[in-house]
């Protein structure tokens, strides 16, 4: 597999892990994710949903979710959205509209009647809706490619979620969603990068 070739280095007959930059990890895990078969994605997404079900959702009121970008093979949140609506109807789901000129996100209730339209990146976003302030959010599901052992994530490099999370309450639960287990260390973490509280993968939940 790609990861076994690029992420480990053989030295004097022993294999050692190599710490990598965001760009290196972004290229590596994009290629890895894009190579997944339909069957692999279905299995990973099914396991992710089962992991998400284990959280104590009854204690939360406002949960921010992302709408997956299919062309990037993002982990699918739609089954989770359906499950929350059925089993935790007290929860208000929230999703975002992105402004690519300012790098900011606006947040709206995601209801059954919410009309979603594609932006120029192909991301489905609410056209209109009831605005929700960042301070109201209890949980944020965060898309990413991979995360390191300290909760630092590799996204798409635009900084939307770091700016977004920086406006939220200190006690907001940020849950990364990834197909892949954590890597030891991202070498070029910036002072404005905001680490996650935890990350859900098909194999386990990591807490940071």
UniProtKB/TrEMBL annotation:
Signal peptide: none annotated. The lineage of its organism: Bacteria, Pseudomonadati, Bacteroidota, Sphingobacteriia, Sphingobacteriales. GO terms for biological process: folic acid-containing compound biosynthetic process; tetrahydrofolate interconversion. The keyword Nucleus does not apply. PANTHER family: 5-FORMYLTETRAHYDROFOLATE CYCLO-LIGASE, ATPASE INHIBITOR/5-FORMYLTETRAHYDROFOLATE CYCLO-LIGASE. InterPro entries: FTHF_cligase, FTHF_cligase-like_sf, NagB/RpiA_transferase-like. Its cofactor is Mg(2+). It is an enzyme of class 6 (ligase). Substrate binds at residues 67, 74. Belongs to the 5-formyltetrahydrofolate cyclo-ligase family. ATP binds at residues 22-26, 153-161. One of its GO terms (molecular function) is metal ion binding. This is 5-formyltetrahydrofolate cyclo-ligase. Keywords: ATP-binding, Ligase, Magnesium, Metal-binding, Nucleotide-binding. It catalyses: (6S)-5-formyl-5,6,7,8-tetrahydrofolate + ATP = (6R)-5,10-methenyltetrahydrofolate + ADP + phosphate. It holds the Pfam family 5-FTHF_cyc-lig. Its EC number is 6.3.3.2.
């Amino acid at each position: 597999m790609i990861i076994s070739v690029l992420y480990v280095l053989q030295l004097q007959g022993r294999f050692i892990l190599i710490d990598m930059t965001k760009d290196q990890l972004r290229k590596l895990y994009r290629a890895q994710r894009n190579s997944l078969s339909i069957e692999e994605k279905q299995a990973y997404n099914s396991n992710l949903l089962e992991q998400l079900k284990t959280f104590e959702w009854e204690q939360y009121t406002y949960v921010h979710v992302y709408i997956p970008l299919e062309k990037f093979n993002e982990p699918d949140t739609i089954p989770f959205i359906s499950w929350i609506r059925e089993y935790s109807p007290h929860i208000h789901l929230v999703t975002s509209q992105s402004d690519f000129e300012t790098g900011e996100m606006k947040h709206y209730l995601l209801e059954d009647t919410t009309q979603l339209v594609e932006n120029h990146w192909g991301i489905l976003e609410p056209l209109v809706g009831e605005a929700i302030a960042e301070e109201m959010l209890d949980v944020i599901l965060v898309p990413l490619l991979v995360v390191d052992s300290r909760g630092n994530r590799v996204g798409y490099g635009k900084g939307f979620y770091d700016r977004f999370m920086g406006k939220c309450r200190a006690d907001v639960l940020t849950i990364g969603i990834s197909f892949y287990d954590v890597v030891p260390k991202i070498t070029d973490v910036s002072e404005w990068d905001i680490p996650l509280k935890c990350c859900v993968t098909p194999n386990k939940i990591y807490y940071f």
